[in-house]
Design brief:
- This protein is mainly α.
- The protein has one domain.
- The protein has two helices and no strands.
- α1 packs antiparallel against α2.
- The longest helix has 24 residues.
- It is elongated, with a radius of gyration of 12 Å.
- It starts with a helix and ends with a helix.
- InterPro entries: HLH_DNA-bd_sf, Spo0E-like, Spo0E-like_sf.
- It comes from Halolactibacillus miurensis.
- One of its GO terms (biological process) is regulation of sporulation.
- It holds the Pfam family SpoOE-like.
Length: about 55
């Protein structure tokens, strides 16, 4: 996945996580699951960015 698409997915996932957290709380299992997905996306982005440098 190219960096631009990955950044878009990161932004969308972050927004989704914030909505869920605001509605159900940060400790809700759904918010935690989305947070873990966001972590994976951010790690992937960092790895791809490091390969470019």
């Amino acid at each position: 996945m190219c960096l631009e698409k990955l950044l878009k997915q990161i932004t969308e996932t972050r927004e989704h996580m914030m909505l869920v957290a605001n509605e159900k709380g940060m400790n809700h299992h759904e918010a935690i699951k989305i947070s873990m997905e966001l972590d994976l996306l951010l790690n992937d982005y960092q790895k791809k960015l490091n390969k470019r440098i």
